[in-house]
Amino acid sequence: KIVRFVNPLEKWELVSSLSLSPSSSLLLSVVALNRYTKKRSHQLPPSPPTIPFFGNLLWLLVKPFSRVKALSLSLHEIYGPIYTLHIGSKPLIVIASHSLAHQALIANGAIFADRPQAIATEKFLSCDQHNITLAFYGPKWLRLRRNLTYNILHTSRIASFAGARKWALDALLNRLKSLSSSDEYHHTEIRDHIQHALFSLFTFICFGEKLEDMKIQDIKNLQRRLQSSFDEFKVLKVFACLGKFVFLKRWEKLRQLRQDQEKLMVPLIKARKAMREGKNEKDEPFLPYVDTLFDLQLKEENRKLEEKEIVTLCSEFFTAGIDTTSTALEWIMANLMKHPHIQDKLFKEIKGVVSDGEVEIKDDDLRKMPYLRAIILENLRRHPPSHFLIPHTVTKDVVLGGFFVPKNSIVIFMVVEMGRNPNLWENPMEFKPERFLINGDFDISGTKEIK
């Protein structure tokens, strides 16, 4: 009769008994048992009910992105600090626990450091993952990240941007003053003016040139078009293979967006490259970001970056720096208005540091303002600019929090919920900067713990 296999272990035992010696058969049986019991001794994190074939996929199709965020928070309340969503062929593990995040990102950093394979639309917009956000963990990612952190984000580099910051700030103040001095009542969104000032600053740092307001507005509008198209193009992400044929018009619209982006930025890149060849770098007040990309060598591919890849990195520079900063500033101002006593306390600190007659706060003055620093940290805790970190993927099977996380599964960390944990923070929903004054040596790096 045909033998019925109950589980994979029996298959190993049958094969080994038929073709191998008794000792080899025993060895293979032990290996198979270890492998089998290892995978079955821990289960995947709990998961909401799934629909056959679709899993939890329909959420992404019927829910706008903002609603998916809210749904993720409710799932955390139901299923706990770690749960699974079945979207596509690989499980998506959502982590909302500070201790599990520290265990994954710090204690097992090498295992959780990689990025997942980008979906079709992301691969297209990122030139096949040639940016820091989506590049696989390896030489290319390290080189791109080191270039940004050393040449732009290093303390000495940030100090060199002082003139650029003052120029952007003066422009912002002049725009606000012109509105307030008008005889007519103006209702204006402060967000638009903050974002325009940040785009002015970041385009200056990126291209080394003070662009005209019209050009800055064009770049701003294009970046907004790309970000606001998430819901429209998400069906292309879910059905990548069929989408190129079934949703042809949407793909054409996506391609047009990318062409518009290159049409806008490539002339700025070429102009900077031509200007750079005729100038001495020592004459420049700072090193623009695009200059660092011209000489960047992708050793694993034995070439330099192409123009379209530089466009991708510049776009990433704007998205990562501008949206996070403007969101944080908006929430800080909202909380200062909501809590006048905090605003008064900050004002007194500023007056105690800045000399009479001074109209500007210098960089050196900021180091003498612990309450301002506490307000910023409390704002990032209570209102993180992004509710989730960029997705990670694991390079091998691992057990986390008693649950099995299989190799190549996608892992997302829910930052917003960690800052609202009542076991870590007293009255977590209250905006209270003083909590960071009591613990003055708060570990921002997360090396000791993630809170």
What does this structure look like?
There is one protein chain. The chain has helices spanning 8-19, 22-40, 58-62, 65-79, 98-107, 120-125, 139-151, 155-160, 162-180, 190-207, 213-228, 230-238, 240-246, 248-277, 289-294, 307-338, 340-353, 363-366, 370-382, 415-418, 435-438, and strands at 82-86, 91-95, 297-298, 303-304, 392-393, 398-400, 403-405, 410-413. A hairpin with a 4-residue loop joins strand 1 and strand 2 (91-95). The protein has two domains: 40-116 and 340-450, Orthogonal Bundle (Cytochrome p450), CATH 1.10.630; 119-338, Cytochrome P450 (Cytochrome p450), CATH 1.10.630.10. The chain is built from 21 helices and eight strands. It is globular. By secondary structure, the protein is mainly alpha-helical. The longest helix has 32 residues, at 307-338.
How are the elements arranged and paired?
Elements (H helix, E strand, L loop, with lengths): L7 H12 L2 H19 L17 H5 L2 H15 L2 E5 L4 E5 L2 H10 L12 H6 L13 H13 L3 H6 L1 H19 L9 H18 L5 H16 L1 H9 L1 H7 L1 H30 L11 H6 L2 E2 L4 E2 L2 H32 L1 H14 L9 H4 L3 H13 L9 E2 L4 E3 L2 E3 L4 E4 L1 H4 L16 H4 L13
Parallel strand pairs: 2-8
Antiparallel strand pairs: 1-2, 3-4, 5-8, 6-7
Q: What can be said about this structure in brief?
A:
Pfam families: p450. The protein has helices at 8-19, 22-40, 58-62, 65-79, 98-107, 120-125, 139-151, 155-160, 162-180, 190-207, 213-228, 230-238, 240-246, 248-277, 289-294, 307-338, 340-353, 363-366, 370-382, 415-418, 435-438, and strands at residues 82-86, 91-95, 297-298, 303-304, 392-393, 398-400, 403-405, 410-413.
